[in-house]
Amino acid sequence: MALALWECRPEPKNRGFGGGYRHALPWLGEGLLIAGGQRWARSRRLLTPAFHFDILHPYINIYNDSAELMLFLHTGYNTEIKRHPYVEAVTELSKIIDIRTRNVLLHPNFVFYLTSMGKTFKKHCDYVHSVAKEVIDRRKNKLKEAKSPTKKYLDFLDILLTARDENGVGLTDLEIRNEVDTFLFEGHDTTASGISWILYALASHPEFQRKCQEEIDAILEDKADEKIEWEDLPKFEYLTQCIKEGMRINPPVPAVARALSKKMTIDGITYLPGTMVALNMYLLHHNPTVWKNPEIYDPERFSKENIDKIGPFDFCPFAAGPRNCIGQNFAMNEEKVLLARFLHRYTIELDPTHVTEKAFALVLRAPNGIKVIVKKRKQ
Ligand code: HEM
Q1: Above 80 in pLDDT, residue 81?
Q2: Is the dihedral angle over the CA atoms 116, 122, 127, 128 positive or is it negative?
Q3: Cβ atoms of residues 248 and 199 within 8 Å
Q4: Strand (E) positions, the chain?
Q5: 258 CB near ligand 1 (under 6 Å)
Q6: 325: CA distance to ligand 1 center in Å?
Q7: Which residues, if any, are the signal sequence (predicted)?
Q8: What residues contact residue 7 under an 8 Å CB cut-off, 6+ apart?
C-alpha cells in the first residue's frame, strides 16, 4: 500500500546544539521547514491542498503581473530599485544565521543575544513577525466579514486560516504566523536565487539563450500583451531543460541536513542515532561519478532522450523523499513565466569586467552580484 508523504517518518531536522536549523527557530518557529514528528505530519497534511493544481492555476496572473513590473523597471534609466524593508530584513536574518552556524562561539543563546549581531537578529525577527501578523489579521477580518471564503479561488493564506484536521481543529495563531514566515522566506529567496543563476548561465551561453528565445517567440507569437497562459506552461520544453540544468549547476539551496533517527552504516563506518548528516546538493550535482563533465552547462542532459538516464537521487534541487519541497511546482511555474517574459523582450550578455563569485549560505548567493548587459531585442 502506498503511503501519503505525511504518513512516512522522515529523519528529523537537526535542531540540537550545533544544528543549523536551531538558529532559524526564533524566526520561522515550528513551521513546515523546521518542525518534526507529528507536528510536521499534521502541517504537511493540512498544507498540501494549498499546492493543488487548481489552487496554483490562478497564480499565473500574479507571475505575469510580477514579470510586467520587472520589465517596466528595466525600461527606466537610472531607476533606483529599492528593496522592500521586509526583503532587506529576511536577507539579513539568513546572513546572520549562516554566520552564527559557522561560529561555535555564537551558538549559546546567552552569548549571541549579547552581541550586536544578536540584537540585530532580534530586531529583524520582531519586524518580520509584525509584518506577517498584519497580513494575517487583515485577511482574517476579510474572511470574518464574508463569513466563509466566497472568492472563486482560495489562496495559500485562505487555506491556512480555514484548514481543519480530522478533529475539526485548525492552526493556532502562532502556527499560522510560523507558516507565513516560512513560506515568505522559502518561497522568495530560493526562487530569486534560482532565476538569477539561470540568467547567469544563459548569459554565459548565447547559443542556448537563442534557442530559448526561438521557442518563446513561437509560443507568444500571436499575443500582443505577451501574457503567458496556464496552458502555455508545458510548451516551454527547451526553457525547462535550461532551468533544470541551471538548478543542477547552481542549486538555489546548496545543502540540507538531518539528524539520524537510527544507526546507519556508510562506507563501513557506523553512525549512531542523533548524528548530524549534511547532504550537499551542490557537491552531488558536481560529482563526476554522478554527472559526466559536471562543470559544463548542458541543457541536453534534460532532453526527452536523456532524462531517463538521470537517477532518482542524482538531481535534487528540491531535495527528495517526504521532506521534499512542497512548493516545487509553484517555483517551476514562476521561473518559467519570469524567464520567458524577460527573454522575449531582452537578450543578456555577461559583463566581461565582472567576476561572479559564489557564496554558500542558506541559499546560493553571489556576494558581489551577477552583472549582465541587457539589450532590447529587435522583433
Ligand atoms: C527554486 C525554488 C525552490 C527551491 C530550489 C527549493 C528547495 C527546497 C529544498 C531543498 C527543501 C528542503 C529543505 C530542507 O530539507 O531543509 C525545501 C523545502 C521547502 N520548501 Fe522549497 N524550494 C523552492 C521554492 C519554494 C517555494 C516557491 C515554496 C513555497 C511557496 C517553498 C516552500 C518550501 C517549504 C514549506 C519547505 C519545507 C517542506 C517540508 O519540510 O515539509 N519552496 N525547498
Answers
A1: no
A2: positive
A3: no
A4: 255-259, 264-266, 269-271, 276-280, 346-350, 359-360, 364-365, 372-376
A5: no
A6: 4
A7: none
A8: 41
For ligand 1, the distance from its centroid to the CA atom of residue 339, given in whole angstroms, is 20
- Of 374, 346, 66, the C-alpha closest to 227 is 66
pLDDT in tens, 286-311: 999 999 999 999 999 999 999 999 99
**Which position has the grid cell 554527472?**
291
Cβ-Cβ contacts under 8 Å for 161 (sequence gap 6 or more): 136, 139, 140, 143, 170, 171, 176
**CB neighbours of 43 closer than 8 A, spacing ≥ 6?**
31, 32, 35, 171, 175, 179
Helices (H) and strands (E) in the chain, counts: 13, 8
Using left for φ > 0, alpha for ψ between -120 and 50, and beta otherwise, residue 78 falls in: left
Residue 260's CB is within 10 A of a number of other CB atoms, namely 16
**294: enclosing H helix or E strand:** none
pTM here? Answer: 0.93
Cα 362 to averaged position of ligand 1 atoms, centre (Å): 11
Over the stretch 170-203, which tens digit does the pLDDT of each residue have? 999 999 999 999 999 998 889 999 999 999 999 9
d(CA 245, CA 116): 40
